[in-house]
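[audit] Reproducing an earlier prediction to check determinism. Same input, same settings, fresh worker. If the tokens differ from the archived copy the diff job will pick it up downstream; this log only records the rerun itself.
[audit] input (79 residues):
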Amino acid sequence: AMTGQDAVNTAKEFNDRLNFDGVILTKLDGDTRGGAALSIRTVVSKPIKFVGTGEKLEALDVFHPERMADRILGMGDIV
């Protein structure tokens, strides 16, 4: 929960200081179920464009809202 809140706070600080078009969520390969994604989207009013699930560039993927919804609901990430 603290990591999610830190992510929300960081996103808010970026939004207050910089003009950006969208959000990239990283570290989704851990135990998180993506609840911070909803909070970040609400706080910055910017779309989530990409998600990262690893340490390499190849682990960066286009964001699919339906997959995140399934993850939040505990249904896994079925492709």
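[audit] rerun output stored. Observation attached for the diff report: The chain has three helices and three strands.
[audit] end
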